[in-house]
Amino acid sequence: MANITAADVKKLRDLTGAGMMECKKALEEADGDIDKAIESLRISGAAKAAKRGAERTTSNGLVVAQDNVMVELLCETDFVAKSEDFQSLAAAIVAAAASSQVGDQEALLNLTLADGRTVAQGVSDLAGIIGEKLELGRVALLKAPVATYLHRRSSDLPPQVGVMVSFEGSDDAARGAAMQVAAMRPVYVARADVPDDVVANERRIAEATAKEEGKPEAALPKIVEGRLQGFYKDSCLLEQPSVQDSKQSVAQVLQAAGTTVSAFARFVGASTPDGFNPYRISREGLDWEVPDPAEPWSHIGYWGDHQIIYLLKLLEMVEQRTPGGLGTMLANETFSYADVPYRLRTYAEIVANPHETIV
Fold first, then answer.
1. Helix (H) or strand (E) run with residue 190 in it
2. Which of 167, 118, 169, 120 is nearest to 147 (CA)?
3. Residues 158/170, Cβ–Cβ less than 8 Å
4. Calpha distance 349→207 (Å, rounded)
5. Is 70 in contact with 164 (CB distance < 8 Å)?
6. What number of H helices and E strands is found in the chain?
7. Where are the beta strands (DSSP E) in the chain?
8. Is the distance from CB of 194 to CB of 188 less than 8 angstroms?
9. pLDDT (tens digit per residue) in 18-47
10. Most buried of 57, 119, 320, 339 (most Cβ within 10 A)?
């Protein structure tokens, strides 16, 4: 058996990033051959990553952009998300995607990085070193020129909200549109982009809601049309009130700047497509939500738990500050308003389609 020195272990660790004991074991199994030890560590790292893939969920990560490409790289914890190695890998991946103009996840995984590895291998190698499950998330490629807006939810974390807008005209106006997309979460650029089946479903929901509310039959067509216009105003970027000037629509603001927007991509959060964390905290630890096709409420249940907790804490604070005053307040008619980037559908709409509860 070869004599494994501390210098050998350090050299292997510097080359692979693996732990000291793992490096020592790999060298012993390879009889001191460093190339075989590196191969062994890569194989064992891939095996560990595969096992983690079956057991863990990537609920964190970051969004990076370069030129007209935006990429999401996912991990398990914010500790990894803000690490230099993780951010360096993300930068290398988006650089490769931008260079090759790749906007498809599967194609990007097979793309070669500057160091000669594929993106898939780079992700797998880092997962083996870090000890967390890592995944390539969403990928977007838009026609240039584009305006990009990346938002950090905390100063010590990398961007986890990313928007890219394809445009012609003013850079400043396009960046304003990107910020609008991040804040108000439109689904389409214009009403012409809304699929016919989506429009038909909105009409059906609007009619069912109006009937549930007891509206006169003769008034239904006008009511349905009015609510459909409201849907367009919520869902279409150009028809939304501008966050920069609420008296104008986004279309009016862009027109005044001589700018047109043709497409956008939005990555909000690293946990779910909507950016909500699909878990709740229990006495046993983190209880991850598992969507149940037979239970339409399962996909929003934990998000609802969060809202209940926030409300409970607020009510407790009120009672502490003004003992006995809460009962008096609850007996009064009170109006409150929060400018959030979504709205809840009405009860009748939810009954008509419980899988679509949020606009």
1. none
2. 167
3. no
4. 9
5. yes
6. 14, 8
7. 60-66, 69-75, 135-141, 146-151, 161-168, 260-268, 279-282, 285-288
8. yes
9. 667 777 888 888 888 888 887 777 666 644
10. 119
Q: How do beta strands 260-268 and 161-168 pair?
A: antiparallel
Report how far residue 291's alpha carbon sits from residue 277's, in angstroms, rounded to the nearest whole number: 13
Which run of H or E residues covers position 129? helix 119-130
Contact 161, 178 (CB under 8 A): no
For residues 182 and 267, the answer to whether their CB atoms sit within 8 Å is no
Long-range contacts formed by 74-77: CB under 8 A, 24+ apart: 74/134, 74/135, 74/136, 74/137, 74/270, 75/130, 75/132, 75/133, 75/134, 75/135, 76/132, 76/133, 77/132
Contact (CB, 8 A) for 251 and 239: yes
Percent of the chain with pLDDT over 90: 34
Give me the phi and psi of 82, to 5 degrees please: -95, 10
Identify the DSSP state of 111: S
- Give the pairing type, strands 279-282 and 285-288: antiparallel
With b meaning 16 or more CB within 10 Å and e meaning fewer, what string describes 238-254?
bbbbbbeeeeebbbebb
Element (H, E) at 214: none
Beta bridge partners of 60: 75
Burial readout 32-47 (b: 16 or more C-beta within 10 A, e: otherwise):
eebeebbebbbebbee
Q: What is the mean pLDDT of the chain?
A: 80
Count CB neighbours of 283 within 10 A. 5
Residues 6 or more apart whose Cβ sits within 8 Å of residue 221: none
pTM of the model: 0.63
